[in-house]
Amino acid sequence: MRKFRDVINIKSLKWQLLVRWSLMLILLLIIMGISQYFITRSYLFSGKNQVLEARLHDLDKDDLQNSKYPNSIKLNATFLVNLVSDRNTSVIIIDAKGGIISESKGINGDITPPHLSQEEYKMLLKESGKGEKYKIVQNRTGSEDMIKFKIIDSGPLAPGLVQISTTVDPINIMLVNQIYFYIVASIVIIILGILIGISVLKHTLKPLNKLTNTLEKVTVGQLNMYLPIDNGQFEIDSLSVAFNEMFKRIKISFEKEQYIKNKMQRFISDASHEMRTPLTSIHGFVEVLQRGAAKNEKQLDIALNSILNESERLTNLVNELLMLTKLEQQIKHEMKNENIKDILEEVYPQLKILAGQRKIDMKLKDNLFVLANKNQIKQIIYNLVQNAIEHTDEKSGVICISMNTIDRPSGIVLVLAIKDNGTGIPEKDLSEIFDRFFRSEEHRSRKNGGYGLGLSIVKSIVDAHRGEISVSSELNKGTIFSVFIKLADS
User: Fold this and answer.
1) Is domain 219-331 annotated with CATH 3.30.70.2640?
2) Where along the chain do the CATH 3.30.565.10 domains lie?
3) 229, 240 in Cβ contact below 8 A?
4) Above pLDDT 70, what percent of the chain?
5) What is the pLDDT of residue 221?
6) Fewer CB within a 10 Å sphere, N or C end of the chain?
7) In 3-state terms, what secondary structure has residue 218?
8) Which residues contact 90 (CB under 8 A, 6 or more apart)?
């Protein structure tokens, strides 16, 4: 029953192909039937015409010109009628005025010859040429006859006309019987064609059904499954290739979504942890004060300083998170052509204070302008230098800030590089250092690491300037951060 429902489902491909196949078969049978009918009819009428033409050819010139009865046109006409007619044909002799001189009704007298009007006979007599003509007309009994004419242009009956006719009812009956037989045969052929079509379509659509059944079994956990591409049908193979490519893209998107989901969970967890730590400290010192530490000046000073430091840490964390949110929202900032050398010289005193005893070496070039937001460029420099400071020795640390340019197909690009001689970054962590709250295991301590947001902010700012940032590092030798921003058009 299910298979039957599948076949008659008007929206199914099998049903639509079967209907179109059946319609095409019916149309071809109709065309063939009509063609066969007219070809057979023409052939049979042509044969009947040849029989009548042969009867007329039996009349030679002597029969038409010699007068057997010199004084009687009627007798001559009767003689001619009897000469030509037989039991299947009737003959009529027509005079120049279109009147009937004599006629025969077959040997047995049971044939009713068709009569044309006098005007039609006159027109036939006036027509040029002496060739024989024939027509299919209806006689007085309602049957169809074939009539043929021959002009008499000499002899006692000239000008006149010989009409010979015979019934075509047997031909019509034969054609009707042929139509009935053809209809029955066509119905049988259509039924067989439909049955054969169902079988052929079932075999032809088998790869497609197999493909459908396979796709119905696909779940999220089976995105690595691939469909066979050697089904023996080019279209199905192309469809399988397209589905396989789609599976690849879905798998990549799903893995990316899972990655983002995991990163978001980790981000929320890390953010909660980072916020909870200063809040816990503040809460603890407040409880200490409530228990009477406020009366002890030394303990009060320690508690207040601790609360101040933790609140500052919490404020910095919130500010950095807000900055990342603004960068993600792509809030437009004022962009101007800025000379990077001027910006570096402007922030150098502050960097020098942050570096303490570490050495900061700057190798600058003048007149390198980029379309940028000045404050955000400062933020990039500050965060990268701060990161270098945290991972270099307090006394022997060296931080080098250099500027250069490179040629790319898109134009000349500024390269701002910040190099240090610090602890370096493990190779396994290089792909994650721009992630939020990420800190290498070697730098998890409060002394050596912040919240893991500085490099994320740098990456977001660089992206907002349509630039790139890269990092290379070697353990115990140092790290180089390189920022690439296209130079402004001069």
Assistant:
1) no
2) 333-486
3) yes
4) 75
5) 62
6) N
7) coil
8) 103, 104, 105, 106, 111, 112, 113, 164, 165, 166
Give the global pTM: 0.47
Strands 100-103 and 411-420: unpaired
Q: Which CATH superfamily is domain 333-486 in?
A: Histidine kinase-like ATPase, C-terminal domain (3.30.565.10)
pLDDT band at residue 333 using 50, 70 and 90 as cut-offs = low
Fill in the DSSP letter of residue 86: B
Look at the domain 58-167 and name its fold. Beta-Lactamase (3.30.450)
- Mean pLDDT comparison of 6-20, 96-110, 113-127, 303-317, highest-scoring range: 113-127
- pLDDT for position 104: 79
What is the per-residue pLDDT across 45-95, written as a single tens digit (0 to 9) for each?
888 888 888 877 766 555 555 555 555 677 777 777 777 777 778 888 888
Token pair, residue 485, equals 């921003």
CB distance 43 to 175 below 8 Å = no
DSSP E strands in 156-257: the ranges are 160-167
| Segments of the chain assigned to CATH 3.30.450.20 | 58-167
Position 268 scores a pLDDT of 67
**Confidence class for position 450, pLDDT limits 50, 70, 90:** low
Contacts 24+ apart (CB under 8 A), 108-113: 111/167, 112/139, 112/140, 112/141, 112/143, 113/139, 113/145, 113/163, 113/165
The phi and psi torsions of 403 (rounded to 5 degrees) equal -125, 145
Whole-number Cα distances in Å, 351 to 245, 346, 447, 479: 52, 10, 19, 18
Asked if 398 contacts 421 with a C-beta cutoff of 8 angstroms, the reply is: yes
Name the residue among 489, 483, 339 with its Cα closest to residue 414: 483
Give ranges for CATH 1.10.287.130 in the chain. 219-331
